[in-house]
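can u do me a favor
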């Protein structure tokens, strides 16, 4: 039933919920227009076409002096955009969605489903490749705490105590740990690394070290004495990497 208000010039519709009982009809607000499927499909295809170039660029960047996490982040970022586009395609309504659907609508649905699957597959590939590149770069670059923690979290390295503490000087006892590659067959790299923890006393608890640092395997046994000897001999003094390990 409809009523007309002469003052407001508005028509209201009522619906009967029981005998002689009428309530205003609830009118749904106009739904937002659905996203157009054609632009989404076009953009999705563009993302797929660019995926291999992004992976190729990531491999090129892996050979430069950049942070491994940054290279991974670029691939993950674009992979997540592909996943978002796949979700949007799954939600968008194709034209002519009648029941039974027309042949055209069914073809559109098949193309959408195929595109969604391709986007999701390529996104997973890019995320996996980003992780693989980051691991490879982390192993190839100089040791530092961030890279060590990441490789440990991925199960890519293990830490092994080497013998007992050695006395190097008065109030200087050194405990050495070897950081080994858990998958040495995967990539040529700088591992093993070595961690040197220095203590004032032989029996000091582990966390009471006076200083600690990570070293390259090639410089494991090189230190201040090596540099002093080189200087005395007039040879070029080799820079020795000692990346600090913060206090516990």
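np, heres the sequence
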């Amino acid at each position: 039933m409809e009523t007309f208000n002469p003052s407001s010039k508005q028509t209201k519709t009522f619906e009967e919920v029981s005998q002689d009982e009428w309530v205003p009809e609830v009118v749904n607000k106009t739904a937002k227009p659905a996203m157009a499927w054609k632009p989404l499909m076009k953009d999705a295809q563009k993302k797929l076409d660019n995926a291999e170039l992004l992976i190729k660029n990531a491999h090129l960047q892996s050979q430069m002096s950049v942070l491994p996490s940054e290279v991974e982040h670029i691939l993950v970022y674009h992979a997540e955009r592909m996943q978002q586009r796949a979700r949007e395609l799954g939600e968008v309504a194709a034209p002519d969605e009648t029941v039974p659907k027309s042949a055209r609508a069914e073809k559109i649905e098949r193309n959408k489903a195929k595109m969604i699957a391709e986007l999701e597959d390529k996104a997973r590939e890019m995320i996996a490749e980003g992780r693989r590149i980051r691991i490879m770069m982390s192993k190839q670059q100089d040791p530092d705490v961030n890279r060590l923690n990441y490789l440990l979290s991925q199960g890519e390295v293990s830490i092994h105590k080497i013998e007992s503490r050695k006395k190097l000087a008065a109030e200087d006892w050194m405990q050495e740990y070897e950081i080994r590659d858990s998958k040495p067959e995967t990539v040529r790299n700088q591992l093993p690394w070595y961690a040197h923890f220095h203590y004032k006393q032989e029996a000091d608890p582990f966390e009471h070290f006076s200083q600690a640092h990570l070293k390259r395997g090639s410089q494991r046994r090189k230190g201040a004495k090596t540099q002093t000897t080189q200087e005395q001999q007039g040879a070029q003094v080799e820079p020795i990497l000692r990346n600090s390990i913060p206090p516990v």
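Residues 27-34 have pLDDT under 50 and may be disordered. hope that helps!!
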